Amino acid sequence: MALESELYAIMDLLKYLSQQPLYVAVFGAVFFFAVGRFRQYWRLRQFRGPFGTGLSWLWHSRAVISGNAHRYYGEVTEKYGTIARVAPNHLVTSSPELWAHINAVRSPYARSPWYYHCARFEPGKDNVFTECDNDKHDARRKKMASGYSGKENPMLESSIDTHVKELVHLIRSKYAAPAASTSVSKPMDMASKMQYLTLDVISHVGLGQAFGDLKADADVNDYLKSSEEGLMIGNMSWGLGISWIRDVPILGKAISPSEKDERGFGKMMAHTRKSIEDRMLKSTEERSDMLSSFIRHGLSGEDLFHETFEQILAGSDTTAASLRIIMLYVMSHPRVYAKLQAEVDGAVKAGIAPASPGVISDAEARRLVYLGAVVREAMRVHPPVVNLFSRVVPKGGDIVTVDGEEVFLPGDTLIGYSAWSMHRNNKALYGEDAHVFRPERWFVDENEPGGSERLARMLKTNDMIFGYGRWLCLGKVVAMIEIHKVIFELLRNFDFALTNPHEPWTISNTLGLFAIGNMWVEVTERS
């Protein structure tokens, strides 16, 4: 009797719903959403993560919007394992071996549009960083490799030297107190000066003409301000899951920067397009630089514009973050500061570096072992780029080995990496004090049992800061030339001290890049 009553009740409910099409549609949508979400939960049930990550994206949204997503990812892998769950269909790993496998040159994994398309600067248009089709990405990369490597840009190093000299001159003439003087220096925001330098360098080597921020000691046309604001908006929309709005016809274009804008991001786009159009009227042999190399290797039209503009954005932000991080860790560790400056002074005394205002060559700077260790260690303990870099597991899934055990990754699962735990907190590789800034850890005795193998693993893992395999950063060569030269010349010419050591800077993670400001320092000229 009870069963008969329940059947009648169900029939009455179905009859009522059949007369309410809107309710049916809503009920159906909710039902299919719930079923889909449960399937996602079930297929990744073996991977642990914070409460709710198996059914909801809320935890991940909170991490992204906080501006500290890199720390959230780090804590997850440390608490829940080398592969952990951060959302219903998203995993994150701290394993260098697994990440190298995922990013191998012939890897079947692909970039995830869910993440990378948020980094587009124009709706629906890709560049080498945002392109998610592996074949198209590889084709683009092949056309650009020579330009980034410096092989077709004989003026690359001298162009960088020009702006390193401008930086030294700016600090000496406007901010530094004279040597052995009781006068007070003018407080200098090192964060902005590093950004001026890197933007001038990349616009010079990329477009043939620097934007002129260092000479003006200002953010000319608000390029940097607009770029930072754009990253923050992009980070917020990605975290909230509404970045798809930019791909809506008409609406997306209306809320995006325009080349008709008089200042900011749109103005920078217009400047880049004008530089390209002017260059297209001339022979690429007249001036050999990145842009000329791109043209010679077959980039043209919108592809040429997007790749050229992308190199300016990516090449400026990431290198500036690296320089700020290195200088902060050097200034906040007196022992390291003294030792590094002694090596710099020794190089000057030995004639390895030309007399000021000359700039040390890249080849000679790379031979300074402590400088190299400081650069590696600072970028290890505080990676300058902490993108999630979401990849898509190939259909059919993949069996991988992690911590000595075989693990199955279901197809179409998203998986990214935790820079914080792979580099900063990797005790298994770097020792129990992995979180400590100690450049000496790179001086491994290769004659000790297992020493050479351990150093090789350390170097390989550390190099992954610039990506790996198929997605290795094209701009690594240019960035490393800048970094070694700038650190050497700053410590050769000046003494620096943090103005507010209790709060040395403001910093926020936006789409995996660091927005850094208010890095106030006091500068004294060295005799």
UniProtKB/TrEMBL annotation:
Gene Ontology molecular function: heme binding; iron ion binding; methyltransferase activity; monooxygenase activity; oxidoreductase activity, acting on paired donors, with incorporation or reduction of molecular oxygen
Please give the cofactor(s) recorded in the UniProt entry for this protein: heme
Identify the residues that bind heme.
Answer: C473
- List each coiled-coil range: none
Q: Which GO terms describe its biological process?
A: methylation
**Transmembrane intervals:** 20-38
Write out the pathway annotation from the protein's UniProt entry. Answer: Hormone biosynthesis
Pfam families named among the record's database cross-references: p450
Q: Which superkingdom is the protein from? A: Eukaryota
Name used for this protein in its record:
Cytochrome P450 monooxygenase ABA1
* Species of provenance: Lepidopterella palustris CBS 459.81
